[in-house]
Amino acid sequence: MRQAIIFTLLLIAVAHAADKPNFSGIWKLDPAQSDFGPQTPPSDAQYVIRHVGSKLSFNYTQDGNTSRIDITPDNEERITSSTGESNTWTRAYWSNQSLVLESRERRKFGTQPATGTGWTSRWSLSEDGRQLIIERTLRNSTAEASQKLVYVRQPVPGK
Prior knowledge:
The protein is mostly beta strands.
């Protein structure tokens, strides 16, 4: 009986994971379809994403600079990047078919816990799976701005 319950729970977990989009791939920014709000568009930007099970790892390259981020969409807040003075804390979770990333900067030292900078990104795939769409709201202590970034799936090298 216990094995049947465990097996049933495992099947439910697999079925739940299967209804989420898989973001794996190489995604190149399409500036013509994107809206950068008040920010200057980069000359070049790309994501290389590996999405296995519930974990996502991605390299983001913008204008020749690459950063690596690992995400687990379990609604837990974790440090996803760090500089000399601050950490970026990110909470990731699913909202229907969208992956939501809520990030904020926090100072490492001093009495002030946050820098006032934060953003929320909603990742989704187009119906045909050829576009990664990131709708982002950027915030600081005095203003808020919205962006819609469209990335186009690139062919996998060697295939």
